[in-house]
Amino acid sequence: MSWFLFFSFLPFAIYSIALLIYPLNDFQLKRVFSPLQLTAGDQVTVKISLNRKFPFPLLFLVVADWVPDEFYYRESKKILFPGFKRNLEFYYKIDKIPRGEHVFEAIRFKTGDALGLVEKEKWVDCREVLLVYPQHEEIEYRSLESQFEQGGTVSAMQFQKDTSLVAGIRQYQPGDRFSWIDWKAFARTNDMMTKEFEIRQTNDLLIILDRTKTKNFEETVKFVASITKSVLKYGGQIGLFSAGDDKTFFPIRGGDQQQQQIFLHLAKVKADSSVPLANIIETESILFTQPAVMIVVTSVLSKELVDQAGVYMRRRGTFIVYYIKKQNDPISQEELIIKSSAMQKGIIMISLYEDEFRTAFSEVKRA
Predict the structure, then answer these.
(1) Which of 259, 300, 348, 354 is the most buried (most CB within 10 A)?
(2) Measuring CA to CA, which residue among 316, 230, 246 is closest to residue 238?
(3) pLDDT digits (tens, 9 = 90+) for 164-187
(4) What share of the chain is helix, strand, coil (3-state, %, to 5)?
(5) Looking at the predicted structure, is the pLDDT value of residue 294 above 60?
(6) CATH tag for 205-366 (out of 3.30.420.240, 3.40.50.410, 3.40.50.360, 3.30.750.24)
(7) Taking the mean position of all CA atoms in its chain, how far away is CA 304?
(8) Where is the DUF58 domain (predicted)?
(9) At what angle do helices 333-344 and 303-315 cross, to 10 degrees?
(10) pTM over the 0.85 mark
């Protein structure tokens, strides 16, 4: 009986010793995503390939992909039965992948013998970055320029005064800047006169993205992407100031390259602002040098933001605030008070739900 047990156990012992010697470094692993160009909400298929040179017989192989913390899928872990095969592969899918920069760090695989006497495990660094762009909608683009047509009405839009082009002089009025006073005319007439400047009409837009952490932040990013796509598609020019812990500024430009740069930023951007948007606007002097219509996209309304918008209007021109809300999210009494205050200051403030993005520019005309 003892010899029978010995010879019965001998094959398992030899296999365990051979498995112990077999190097798992023989495996080459590769991860492939399909498709590569992704938008939030899309489905992505992940292919894991394993290739080896020496066909050592393996009873089983447990392969697990180390997916990012944002999502976990059981399908990313699978048991394969290689036998003598040199090439192995398996697939798994991720449904409704969220916007962002997702980092897949490594792949783990493990094998062993039939009796559980030997287990071998290896982690392979296989770092891949999957970039998922924000969703966007087609917006009915309409020029925001002011039109003075016979029989028509003047729109509420105000535009940039070009202080390098003097059109004439007029009587000084309270509120005029000290630097606008025409001292030569004052010396001639002994009356305080103010320079009149030409009005520069512009369709250029400068968007300010509020990166305050709220439940509506993803909708806010989606709306900025929609405006960018629509304006550039119709030949307009646009710039972006991303207001977070790390401030990012894209000067006003047009073309496909501008869209690629802005969309790349929107794919990676996070709601990490620890400072109220009004304070950021107040301290960023670069915003007051841009000859463009200012558009703030936010999901947080505050009295301070309205006050700062009023300061901008007195110094530069038009200020539009898009307040992004989720469906079935009612407008509070405080929000109504803030909107009323904005209207009194001449600020265009528009509340938008996600299904209303298409008419965003039309709402400006009605405001």
Answers:
(1) 348
(2) 230
(3) 555 667 777 665 666 777 777 777
(4) 30, 35, 35
(5) yes
(6) 3.40.50.410
(7) 25
(8) 169-365
(9) 10
(10) no
